[in-house]
Every structure is written in structure tokens, then in C-alpha cells.
């Protein structure tokens, strides 16, 4: 039994792994490289699909993003040639299609056709923009955000994937060289309701004439330092004060660049480059926000998205567009921005390739920031690559749509600093593990571990400056990013060795432990089992304090049992016991945590106890390796070994199917219940007891999660800051039982695809 | 806004044909062309009636109370200072000393149409009334002090105690006037004044407003055509777009009811400022002249530059501007454009944008009539025709752009009315 989510990496060599991949994905099954290109007046944007060459990532393919200056279209063509050439080596495609949009799709049609030897299919520009936008809004978490510097936290992400009813109608203000304003109504019908020729090209052009800056990014950088009041005529310059009667502040711009001509002729060219840059930037963005607002009013639209290559994640531009919309709408409308702002058209063109639109409904998309590109140094947001993964879905037992996985809001700068520092300080431990993994695989390329260290540290540096560059910062996001960086650098299961060793010793101990437990009086069993789970949960190589103990060999199962104390605040085992004794439960799911003692000596005996109460048990383990968490494949192998010596487990697993193992679809030490594998979601529909184990899954995330059925959270405080914030001490074990709130379930529409549909999808999937 | 270039005013004074007038600008034939056009425009406007009919309703100056204060009104904007002078009959003054001062004042004002560095008197805009004549004078705001000293020389200033005034300058210069001249500024609201002046002229002065026939197949299509009003129909509601240094958009519901619904910082001063920053041209009128010669295709990125042709599915023609100044984002185009090209692009850019904002607001309030006022349009036939075309284009002929003979003077005129007429005092 092999995971559908991953390539079986156990005991494998990198080269063998890639062979394995080829077996899993025969040539005729795999998707060729597909390219969508959007050639605008100034920039040519490219989105292309590539087969993933990395065996450890959760994905078969990925969407990549890049851009070129239209002026240098030759460079772009060279680049595409390379991609296509490489793909031709593995796949023979006589009639390769290139989807192109934007003005250049017409202008360079012949050139692309001849140079690349492809069939250039031109797609309508507006349609591509909207196709791209709809995809991002629906599929990519934290794609959409608002930005306003008058708020304590300027950048606020839209939390949930938006509902259709809320989305339509909307307008997209696409700001490239020029500006198009497109209205989209429910049935996907779109209309270009207007535009403006005062766009990004205007700013770029004027600043080329007026400053010494060579690139658009340099111009934007200049504007960051400028004072527009040295160049603009403000209301205060005319009135000497506010014109409060009509609500104009003295700082309101009465006339852009209006101060220049008042200077003596010889002084007129003597304004500062910074000032004129800011003035003109304001001029363009204020004007656009006004026109956008008027259009929205005229068409009775409440959602205004801004896209296009002009925005560039530039805080001054976004703030002034936001301000304009807020000002004119008297606060009723907020400007919405997109992290992939510049790539809407190219993404849309890519999606126009045959079958992609249908396929996107059946697949999952996960953003990968390892090679995140910030469009320039002034951008506050980044564009990640989009990995194509099996479709993930909402866990069916979450109480409400308002579910938010992260327990801690890291908007507090001190907390941000603490966590970034923590990850930074302990990075070397991961590097050491990665190095030893290389050795055990007889690989000597230590550059990989070096570049892993560099790349992750660089990300941490970016996040220090722009905490929300990759979406809202959380412990979860920092952890995921670390795993992504490891995999990207070619590392697999770097705790493999540790896990094997711990598994071996734990399995040796298990028969004895089971005997001891079976001998206990019935009413003492549960308490001991829970103690064991908490003790087992101490074996966490991801927690820094514990990592040190484990490395020095200072921790074993017995000493862990002594170390873990019951939490005063979060320990209501008796309530759980009462419910259990009433025979209320028929099916439980346990989200498991670490390998070794945790799973073997803690969870398996506990699961065995639940089985003895005639409760079916689902063990949900990660699909992909991270730290020493037990993976789906690890767990299968452990259970199979246990079945060889324990009858109850053997019967439940092999004969009655009462013990089941599912993969979560995740490769993170945290648990985001909005994104679990469809198989698991399907299997959990009739679950009436949710058990979540571990600090990452039950403390950093889901601590406040409410379920429609009863739930039990088991974890140990292994971080002083977390303990302090939640009200506990280091090494306090929590056993938090909560009754289900059977009021309303989650919207069924969230889980649109059934298991069968997903299987169906596999037949023509992207190759996951 | 505009610096005031006096070329065509001078040459056209005393009704001489421009051909017989010597002037430094006359050497260029293209200049002649633009001058020709501006003069043609002025002649056309001149042929419109210039009296206020039924003025008894409007002007109720009590001659007994005449003092020098009430003869003036000012509108001090961001760039230009607009001054109204009411030339009453001198026999109205019973006080001999005042009569002498009035004579001396008239002498100061009428001895020339050209005051100091920036001041001018718009001779063809003056309006006759039964009791006198309203004159229109223009200075640059930064030279407002010169204006006072030029107009009010010979002790006149000592006899002026108060001047009615509107615009931002009424706040900004209040202290200055008090300290230097011992003159109090009596402030009037900017938009209230603007609308009082405009509504009065629309109501009482025939041919104040005009439009352009945008049908290019008709001869003389660029000639201003006076609006004809049906007296039984109300002129309200309408949209007023005042293009001065910046832009204000007013929704005028009726005589006493209006709202500033929108505005823009891209206005006349933006044009002048960018002309100064980008070219060697130093005055507004020179820039307008240059814009006639320019070819903005060297500057602007056109739909055709991006598409290689038109963008069919959305009906965007190849010669439509996609991005103003977009060509300069490519470094190699920097040398290809002349000052004239740049002036042309700037003028069209700003005019287009004003037109779009105006059109969108008219749509929003369901208005079919847009009046454009403000000194950006002063002698700016190119801009007015561009606006007329733009509004016609966007509205598919549903909305008409109207222009006004007294472009930028309504604020000052309204202040004058508000200050002197009992009819308004009760409002």
C-alpha cells in the first residue's frame, strides 16, 4: 500500500527515486510543458507548467512565473526555447501549442510561431485576465489582501476562499501600460466597461524623462523617499488651511505638479527626483482609484480588484489606491489586491490549454515560497510557485466557516521577532540532520545543505522586514516554509535514521507495555494510556528544548513520564471518561504526531483501547515527511509489524477493518483542517470523536478549533512562550476534552468532490 | 494654471487684424495658425451678445451708497487671481473726492489691457449693464501684490476698506491684505460664488454658453455655436466641471442646491507644471501653440503599438492611445520626441482625463448637460474641442459638452453679485 500523495521514499536513493517516479508516471501519462504568455506594452509575463523533478515534494507538477521586458522579447523567446527543448527530450509532441494573450500575442504571433515552432493560439486578453483572477481567488489561500497604512497592520489577507455569491459582480482594474476596467457578473460574463490611458506606462514614461532612474523599479524606489508637497499644489497652498466645508484637508492634492510652473523659469528643473516621482505616482494612482470608484458606482459593484504589473507590491501605490477608494466610497468599498497581480493574463492563457479548466476543479494547489519572487525590492508581497497537489478539502467536522487554524496571531512585532529568531537560532540543528541524512545516503554533496541553510535564512530575513510577504505570518507558515526549502534542495526524510532507531526500540518495548496495560484494572487503564500518550509526545525532534535532550540521550520513555506533569488548566480527562463509558462513540479519528515512542507506545495502545470499546479508529498521518513526524508510509509499516505480535490490532486492522490508516495530504507539523485529503474527509464523515495530538497540531494550530462532534486534544508544552501565552508550564501535558457543538455543520459546498470524483480525476490528473 | 501669455491679446487689441500687427510670435506661420484659431474663436464669441438683459432683476446697486469697495470682487485661485471691476457712471458719486479717485482708478485700469508682468484685462468679455459695465481682469496669483499696487495706485488704496473675495486666496492672503493695505477681506464660499455667477449669466446673458458641432462633415465644424435656451425649460440640473489648477465637479440640482461630487488633481496647473518640467517652453499659451504642431504618436503608446493593429473584440482602434507617455518607458525613444509632441500629449492626456471624470459623473447622476468652466479652457480651443469629442464619444451623443464665454470668471462675478445684490443677500 503506497501513498497516493508521495513517492515511496523509504530507504531509497535519490537516483532510484527518480526511477520510481518514472514508473509511477509513464511517459504517455505525463503532461507536457504548457506555456501561457501575456505580452503587454511593457512586460511579457510567462506562466508555464513544469514536471516536478523533486521526489520529495507533494507534487507532480508546478506552475512557474517569470517576466521579461517586451522590448527584449528575444530574451523571452530564448527562454521559452530552452523550456521547450528540454521538454522535447522526454516527450515527443509534434503540434505543440502556445497560448498567448495581450497585445503582443497579435504583434509577435509570427515571430513566436517561427522561432519556437509552435502553434500560437491567441486568447482574448480580458477573458484571460478574468480566468486567471477567478483561479487565484478560488484556489490560492491568502491571495487577496487589502492594504492601508492607516491601520496598525496595513496588510490584511482575506481569510477564506470566497463564495460565488459574495464574489460577483466585481470589477478588475488591470493596470499595465494602460488600464482596462472589466466588469464580471455571475455567469462569468465579462464586459470591458472602460479604461484609462493614464497608466503604468505613463508613470514610467514621465519618470524616464524627469529622473535619472534607469528602471521602473528604481523610479518606484525613488518615490518612497519623496515628498510630493514640494511639487504638488495642495489645498493648503491655496487656502493656507483645510477647506473643511467640502471636506478637503490641507494636505489634499489640488493640482499634481502644480507648484512647478510657479517657480522662476531657471528654477523649474530643480525639483528633487524623489519628489517628482512621488508626485507622479500619486497622480496616476489617485486618478485610477477615482475612475475605478466611479465605474463601480455606475455599475453597482462592491468588489474592486486591482491587478497588473504596475502595482508591483509597492506600498505607496497600494496605499494610495486604497486611500482613494476609501475616500470616494466613504469607507464602504475596500481596494483588493492580489499577490500574483501581474500574472493574471498569463495564468489565464495557461488555463486556456485544453482540459486545464476542467482539471483545476479536481486538483489541489499549494503555493510554494522556496523560490518566491518579490517583483522588486520595494514590494511587500511575494509571488510563490504554485505546486499542483491532489485535491484537498475541508475536514467535514469543523463547526463553522470561521475556522482558522492558527492559534497565535503573529501580528505583534515582538512575537514575530521571537519566532523568527527561534527558527533562525535552531536552523543549524536542521542543517546537521540534513548533513547526516546525506551521509547515510552516501551522498557527499554538502552544497545542498549549505544552500538549504542559505535559502531558509534568506526567507527569514525577508520576513523580518515584510512579515506578511508570503501571506499572514504564523508558526505554521514558518514550519511549512522550512519543509519546502528542505525538499526543494533535494532532501527527503532527513529524520529517517532517528525514526528508524526510535521505532525499533519502541517496538521492542511494546509487547511488554501492552501486557502491563491489559493487566491493569479497567478503571485505571484510560488514565495510564493518556499518560503514555503525553510521555510519548515528548519525543519531538522539532521542539528545540527536547531536541537537545534527545541528542544527548537524556530522554527515555520512563523519564519522559516523570517529566510530563498534568496541566492544571487544561486537563479534564474525567469528562472524557464519562462520555466514553456511556458508549457514545462509534468512530474516532486520531491525528497522530511523532514517530517512535509517541506513535508506538502512546497512540497504538490508546487506539487499541478505543477499539476494545467497539470504536472504529482512523489513524491520520502526514503524507510527506517532516521532522520526526510519523508519515503514512511509516505508520503502515509500524502497524504491519504490530499485527505480527498483537492479536487485537491484527484483527482490527487485517480482519475487521476497524483500524484504518489514512494520509492527511499534508507535510507539515501543523494541521490545517481546511486542507485535508479527500479520502480522509470522506472517511471521517461519520466520525463522532476527533482526537488531535501534538504541539504543532493541537497548540500552534487548532487549539481553539471547535467541532460538531466531541473532541480531545492531547499535547505537551514544549515551548516556554506557548506555555506562557496559553497559561501553563513547560512540560505540562494537556488533555482537553470538549463536547461537540451540534448546531450547524460547515457548508457542504466546501467539499464539492466526492471520493469517486477524485478517483475519476486521477485518470487525467496533472500527475500527482 | 496658465501663466498668462499676452501675445494674442496685444495683437488683437484695437481690433486690428493680426496680419498688420507686428509681434515677436508672428514670424512663425504655425503660430499664425493657432493665433488665427484663437482669434477666430474670440471673434465668434464677440459676435455673441454681451449685455445682460433684464438686468434690473440682477443689478440693484444703490448708487447713493457707492464707494470704491463695492466696485471690486476677487477670486484668488491656486494659479490665477480673477478680478471684477464694475465701471459705474462717475456722476453716481456725490462725494467729489471719491469722484476724483474713481476717475483716477478708471485711468489706471483703462489706460492699458496689460498690467505689469502678468496682468491683463479681457476686453471682449466685459458686460454692459444699464448702470455701467463689468470688466474682467486676470493676474497670476503669485503676483497678486503687484496687481493691488498697479490697479490701486495714487492713494486709491487708502480709500478701500474692504474687498469681497473668494477662492483659497481669500484665506491665504487675508492676513497680508490686513497688514499691508489695511484692507479687510470679506470672504464668500468658492462654489456658492461660482454658481451664482454662472447661473446669473446663463439666465440673463444671452449666448453665454456655446457648444461645438462635432460632426466633422459640416463646414466650419470647429466654430463655437451659441446655445439656444427654451425659456420654458429649466436649465437645471446640470454638471459643472471647473478646470482651474485642479478640477472640481459639481452636481447642480437647482439654483440653491449643489454638491461637489468629485474632483481631480490633474488639472491646468498639472499641464503647466509638466510642460515646464519636460520642455523648454515657459508659458501656457506657447505650450498651447506648440501642442498644435506636435505629434503625440512619438510619445504615447498606441493600441497599434501593442497589438500591431486594432483590438477588435473590444473595438479599440489602432490609433487609440493605450498609455500616455508610454513610449518613453523604452529608453531609445527619448530623443525622438520634440517639445511640441510632449505638449500635445500632455494637453490631450489632461483633457481626456477631465472628460472621462466628467462623463462618469454625468452618468452617475443621470445628467445630459455638462458645463465646463475654469481658466484651463481660456483660449484653449484645442482642449475644448477635445472635450466635446470625448464626451460625445463616450456618451454616444447622449451628453453634450457646453463651454462658457467667461470661462474662469464666474467665481469673481458671483462674489460681486453676492456682495452687492440684495436678491442674494437673503439667501
CATH topology of the largest domain in chain B: Nucleotidyltransferase, domain 5
In total, the number of strands of chain B is: 17
Strand order within the widest beta sheet of chain A: 5-4-1-2-3-16-15
Largest sheet of chain B: 8 strands, mixed
The portion of residues assigned to helices of chain B is: 25-40%
* Low confidence ranges of chain B: 7-31
Show the helix and strand layout.
The complex is a heterodimer of chains A (768) and B (427).
Chain A: H1 14-24, E1 35-39, E2 43-51, E3 61-69, H2 73-90, E4 97-101, H3 103-107, H4 109-116, E5 119-122, H5 125-139, E6 144-147, E7 155-157, H6 164-167, E8 170-175, E9 179-184, E10 190-196, H7 200-210, H8 216-225, E11 233-234, H9 235-239, E12 253-255, H10 273-298, E13 303-307, H11 315-328, E14 335-338, H12 344-351, H13 356-360, E15 363-374, E16 382-390, E17 392-393, H14 413-425, H15 427-440, H16 447-465, H17 475-488, H18 496-519, H19 522-536, H20 544-551, H21 557-563, E18 565-571, H22 573-581, E19 587-591, H23 597-612, E20 616-621, H24 632-643, H25 647-655, E21 659-663, E22 676-677, H26 678-683, E23 689-693, H27 695-700, E24 710-716, H28 720-726, E25 732-738, H29 755-762
Helix pairs in contact in A: 5-12, 7-10, 8-10, 10-11, 14-16, 15-16, 16-17, 18-23, 19-21, 19-23, 24-25
Chain B: H1 7-12, H2 29-47, E1 72-76, E2 80-88, H3 96-110, E3 114-115, E4 119-121, E5 127-129, E6 132-140, H4 144-151, E7 162-166, H5 169-172, H6 174-181, E8 184-187, H7 190-204, E9 209-212, E10 224-226, E11 238-243, E12 247-254, E13 257-264, H8 268-278, H9 284-293, E14 301-302, H10 303-307, E15 321-323, H11 339-364, E16 369-373, H12 381-394, E17 400-404, H13 410-420, H14 422-425
Parallel strand pairs in B: 1-7, 7-8, 11-16, 16-17
Antiparallel strand pairs in B: 1-2, 2-6, 3-4, 4-6, 5-6, 9-10, 9-17, 11-12, 12-13, 14-15
Amino acid at each position: 500500500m503506497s501513498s497516493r500523495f508521495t513517492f515511496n521514499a523509504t530507504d531509497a536513493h535519490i537516483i532510484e527515486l527518480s526511477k520510481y517516479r518514472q514508473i509511477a508516471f509513464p511517459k504517455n501519462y505525463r503532461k507536457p510543458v504548457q506555456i501561457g504568455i501575456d505580452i503587454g506594452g511593457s512586460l511579457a509575463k510567462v506562466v508555464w507548467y513544469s514536471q516536478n523533478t523533486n521526489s520529495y515534494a507533494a507534487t507532480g507538477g508546478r506552475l512557474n512565473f517569470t517576466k521579461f521586458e517586451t522590448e527584449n522579447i528575444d530574451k523571452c523567446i530564448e527562454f521559452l526555447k530552452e523550456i521547450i527543448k528540454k521538454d522535447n527530450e522526454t516527450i515527443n509532441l509534434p503540434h505543440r501549442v502556445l497560448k498567448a494573450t495581450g497585445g503582443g500575442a497579435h504583434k509577435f504571433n509570427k515571430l513566436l510561431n517561427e522561432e519556437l515552432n509552435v502553434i500560437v493560439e491567441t486568447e482574448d486578453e480580458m477573458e484571460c485576465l478574468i480566468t486567471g483572477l477567478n483561479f487565484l481567488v478560488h484556489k490560492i489561500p491568502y491571495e487577496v489582501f487589502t492594504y492601508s497604512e492607516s491601520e496598525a497592520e496595513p496588510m490584511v489577507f482575506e481569510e477564506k476562499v470566497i463564495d460565488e455569491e459574495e464574489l460577483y459582480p466585481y470589477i478588475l482594474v488591470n493596470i499595465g501600460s494602460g488600464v482596462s476596467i472589466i466588469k464580471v457578473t455571475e455567469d462569468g460574463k465579462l464586459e470591458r466597461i472602460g479604461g484609462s490611458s493614464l497608466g503604468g506606462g505613463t508613470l514610467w514614461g514621465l519618470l524616464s524623462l524627469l529622473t535619472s532612474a534607469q528602471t521602473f523599479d528604481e523610479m518606484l524606489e525613488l518615490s518612497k523617499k519623496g515628498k510630493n508637497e514640494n511639487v504638488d499644489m495642495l489645498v493648503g497652498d491655496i487656502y493656507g488651511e483645510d477647506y473643511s466645508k467640502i471636506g478637503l484637508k490641507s494636505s489634499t492634492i489640488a493640482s499634481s505638479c502644480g507648484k512647478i510652473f510657479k517657480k522662476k523659469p531657471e528654477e523649474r528643473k530643480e525639483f528633487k527626483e524623489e519628489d517628482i516621482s512621488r508626485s507622479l505616482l500619486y497622480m496616476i494612482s489617485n486618478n485610477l482609484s477615482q475612475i475605478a470608484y466611479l465605474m463601480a458606482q455606475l455599475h453597482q459593484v462592491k468588489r474592486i480588484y486591482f491587478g497588473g504589473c504596475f502595482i508591483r507590491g509597492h506600498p505607496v501605490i497600494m496605499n494610495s489606491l486604497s486611500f482613494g477608494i476609501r475616500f470616494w466610497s466613504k469607507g464602504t468599498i475596500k481596494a483588493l489586491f492580489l499577490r500574483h497581480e501581474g500574472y493574471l493574463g498569463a495564468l489565464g492563457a495557461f488555463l486556456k490549454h485544453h482540459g486545464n479548466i476542467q482539471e483545476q476543479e479536481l486538483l489541489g494547489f499549494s503555493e510554494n515560497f522556496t523560490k518566491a519572487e518579490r517583483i522588486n525590492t520595494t514590494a511587500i508581497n511575494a509571488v510563490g510557485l504554485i505546486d499542483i497537489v491532489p485535491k484537498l478539502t475541508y475536514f467535514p467536522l469543523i463547526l463553522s466557516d470561521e475556522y482558522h487554524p492558527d492559534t497565535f496571531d503573529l501580528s505583534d512585532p515582538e512575537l514575530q521577532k521571537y519566532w523568527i529568531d527561534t527558527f533562525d537560532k535552531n536552523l543549524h540543528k536542521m542543517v546537521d540532520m540534513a548533513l547526516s541524512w546525506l551521509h547515510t545516503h552516501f551522498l557527499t554533496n554538502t552544497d545542498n545543505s549549505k544552500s538549504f541553510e542559505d535559502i531558509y535564512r534568506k526567507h527569514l530575513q525577508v520576513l523580518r522586514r515584510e512579515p506578511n510577504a508570503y501571506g499572514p505570518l504564523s508558526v505554521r507558515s514558518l514550519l511549512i516554509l522550512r519543509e519546502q526549502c528542505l525538499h526543494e534542495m533535494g532532501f527527503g526524510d532527513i529524520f529517517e535514521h532517528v525514526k528508524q532507531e526510535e521505532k525499533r526500540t519502541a517496538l521492542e518495548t511494546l509487547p511488554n507495555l501492552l501486557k502491563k496495560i491489559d493487566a491493569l484494572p479497567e478503571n485505571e487503564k484510560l488514565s495510564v494510556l493518556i499518560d503514555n500518550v503525553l510521555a510519548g509526545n515528548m519525543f519531538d525532534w522539532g521542539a528545540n528544548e527536547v531536541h537537545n535532550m534527545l541528542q544527548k540521550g537524556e530522554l527515555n520513555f520512563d523519564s519522559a513520564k516523570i517529566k510530563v506533569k498534568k496541566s492544571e488548566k487544561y486537563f479534564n480527562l474525567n469528562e472524557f471518561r464519562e462520555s466514553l463509558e456511556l458508549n457514545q462513540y462509534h468512530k474516532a479519528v486520531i491525528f497522530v504526531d511523532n514517530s517512535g515512542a509517541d506513535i508506538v507506545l502512546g497512540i497504538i495502545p490508546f487506539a487499541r483501547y478505543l477499539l476494545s470499546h467497539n470504536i472504529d479508529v482512523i489513524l491520520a498521518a502526514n503524507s510527506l515527511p517532516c521532522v520526526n513526524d510519523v508519515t503514512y508510509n511509516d505508520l503502515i509499516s509500524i502497524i504491519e509489524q504490530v499485527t505480527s505480535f498483537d492479536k487485537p490490532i491484527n484483527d482490527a486492522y487485517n480482519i475487521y477493518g476497524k483500524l484504518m490508516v489514512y494520509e492527511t495530504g499534508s507535510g507539515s507539523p501543523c494541521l490545517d483542517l481546511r486542507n485535508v485529503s479527500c479520502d480522509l474527509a470522506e472517511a471521517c464523515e461519520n466520525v463522532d470523536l476527533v482526537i488531535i495530538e501534538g504541539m504543532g497540531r493541537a497548540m500552534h494550530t487548532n487549539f481553539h478549533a471547535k467541532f460538531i462532534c466531541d473532541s480531545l486534544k492531547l499535547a505537551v508544552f514544549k515551548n516556554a512562550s506557548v506555555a506562557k501565552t496559553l497559561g501553563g508550564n513547560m512540560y505540562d501535558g494537556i488533555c482537553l476534552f470538549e463536547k461537540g457543538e451540534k448546531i450547524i455543520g460547515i457548508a457542504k459546498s466546501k467539499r464539492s468532490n466526492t471520493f469517486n470524483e477524485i478517483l475519476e480525476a486521477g485518470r487525467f490528473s496533472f500527475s500527482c | 494654471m496658465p501663466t498668462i501669455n499676452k501675445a494674442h491679446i496685444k495683437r488683437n487689441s484695437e481690433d486690428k487684424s493680426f496680419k498688420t500687427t507686428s509681434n515677436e510670435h508672428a514670424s512663425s506661420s504655425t503660430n499664425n495658425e493657432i493665433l488665427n484659431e484663437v482669434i477666430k474663436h474670440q471673434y465668434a464669441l464677440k459676435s455673441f451678445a454681451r449685455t445682460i438683459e433684464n438686468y434690473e432683476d440682477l443689478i440693484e446697486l444703490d448708487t447713493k451708497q457707492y464707494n470704491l469697495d463695492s466696485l471690486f470682487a476677487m477670486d484668488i485661485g491656486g494659479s490665477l487671481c480673477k478680478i471684477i471691476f464694475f465701471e459705474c457712471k462717475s456722476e453716481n458719486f456725490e462725494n467729489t473726492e471719491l469722484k476724483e479717485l474713481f476717475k483716477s482708478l478708471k485711468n489706471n485700469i483703462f489706460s492699458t489691457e496689460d498690467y505689469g508682468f502678468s496682468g491683463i484685462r479681457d476686453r471682449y468679455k466685459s458686460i454692459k449693464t444699464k448702470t455701467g459695465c463689468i470688466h474682467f481682469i486676470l493676474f497670476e496669483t503669485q503676483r497678486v501684490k503687484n496687481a493691488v499696487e498697479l490697479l490701486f495706485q495714487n492713494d486709491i488704496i487708502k480709500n478701500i476698506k474692504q474687498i469681497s473675495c473668494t477662492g483659497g486666496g481669500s484665506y491665504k492672503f487675508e492676513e497680508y491684505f490686513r497688514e499691508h493695505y489695511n484692507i479687510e477681506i470679506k470672504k464668500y464660499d468658492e462654489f456658492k460664488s461660482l454658481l451664482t455667477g454662472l447661473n446669473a449669466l446663463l439666465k440673463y446673458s444671452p449666448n453665454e454658453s456655446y457648444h461645438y458641432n462635432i460632426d466633422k462633415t459640416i463646414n466650419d465644424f470647429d466654430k463655437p455655436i451659441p446655445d439656444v435656451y427654451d425659456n420654458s425649460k429649466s436649465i437645471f440640473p446640470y454638471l459643472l466641471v471647473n478646470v482651474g489648477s485642479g478640477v472640481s465637479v459639481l452636481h447642480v440640482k437647482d439654483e440653491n442646491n449643489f454638491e461637489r461630487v468629485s474632483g481631480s488633481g490633474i488639472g491646468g496647473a498639472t499641464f503647466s507644471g509638466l510642460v515646464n518640467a519636460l520642455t523648454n517652453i515657459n508659458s501656457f499659451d506657447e505650450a498651447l501653440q506648440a501642442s498644435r504642431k506636435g505629434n503625440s504618436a512619438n510619445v504615447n503608446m498606441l493600441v497599434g503599438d501593442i497589438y500591431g493593429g486594432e483590438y477588435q473584440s473590444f473595438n479599440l482602434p489602432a490609433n487609440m492611445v493605450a498609455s500616455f507617455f508610454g513610449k518613453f518607458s523604452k529608453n531609445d525613444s527619448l530623443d525622438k520626441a520634440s517639445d511640441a509632441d510632449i505638449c500635445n500629449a500632455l494637453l490631450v492626456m489632461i483633457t481626456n482625463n477631465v472628460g472621462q471624470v466628467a462623463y462618469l459623473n454625468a452618468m452617475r447622476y443621470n445628467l445630459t448637460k455638462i458645463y465646463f468652466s475654469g481658466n484651463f479652457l481660456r483660449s484653449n480651443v484645442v482642449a475644448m474641442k477635445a472635450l466635446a469629442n470625448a464626451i460625445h464619444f463616450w456618451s454616444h451623443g447622449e451628453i453634450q459638452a457646453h463651454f462658457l464665454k467667461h470661462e474662469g470668471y464666474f467665481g469673481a462675478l458671483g462674489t460681486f453679485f453676492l456682495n452687492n445684490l440684495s436678491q442674494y443677500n437673503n439667501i
